[in-house]
Amino acid sequence: MRRNAEWRTRYYGLLEMSKNNGSITFEGVVNALRDKKTDRIEASFASKLVATLDPTKPVIDKWVLRAFHLSRPYYRTSGCRESAMVELFYQLGEKYEKLLACSLGHMILDKFEAHYPCAPITNLKKIDLVLWQIRDKKTSPLAANQKDVGRSKAQFESP
């Protein structure tokens, strides 16, 4: 992790505190980790912390965002950007839910489980690993043009 000691102390302190009280939100983590001097928002680290404690939650990652045709918001005012990041986190979660419910998601899970039958991870994490590994849009199952997969893709991308 390439952050200074003060930031790492805050991050791991928040992780420990959240483990003990069992309640954490992405919005709360974003706010707690926001750099007060630079107004930098650590959405990826925030989502990783939340997903560490609740593996049913998504991780904001540029490769996964690209696979879902999402992108990080860029706003000059921090309040707007922070709320847009929170919205992005929930949109990403909804995209995962739709994918997990459609035939394309079932196909990805079936193939993953055929290769790794004893992997003790959530279905969301299985999909996340696949999307992160395939990075190239041309090989992404979300970019496929097959008839059945295409229907699944359209269903999964619909608002």
Helix content: 55-70%
Number of helices: 8
- Shape by Cα distribution: globular
Instruction: Give the CA-CA distance, first to last residue.
Output: 35 Å
Give the ordered list of helices and strands: HHHHHHHH
Look at the helices and sheets and give the structural class.
mainly alpha
Number of domains: 1
Strand content: under 5%
Entry keywords:
mainly alpha, disordered C terminus
Describe this structure in a few short sentences.
The protein is mainly alpha-helical and about 160 residues long. It contains eight helices and no strands.
Explain what you see.
The chain is mostly helical and 159 residues long. It has one domain (5-157). The chain is 64% helix and 0% strand. The protein is built from eight helices and no strands. The protein has helices spanning 5-21, 26-33, 43-53, 62-67, 78-101, 103-115, 123-134, 147-157. It is globular. Mean pLDDT is 81; it is low at 145-159.
What's the layout of helices and strands?
Elements: H1 5-21, H2 26-33, H3 43-53, H4 62-67, H5 78-101, H6 103-115, H7 123-134, H8 147-157
Helix pairs in contact: 2-3, 2-5, 5-6, 5-8, 6-7
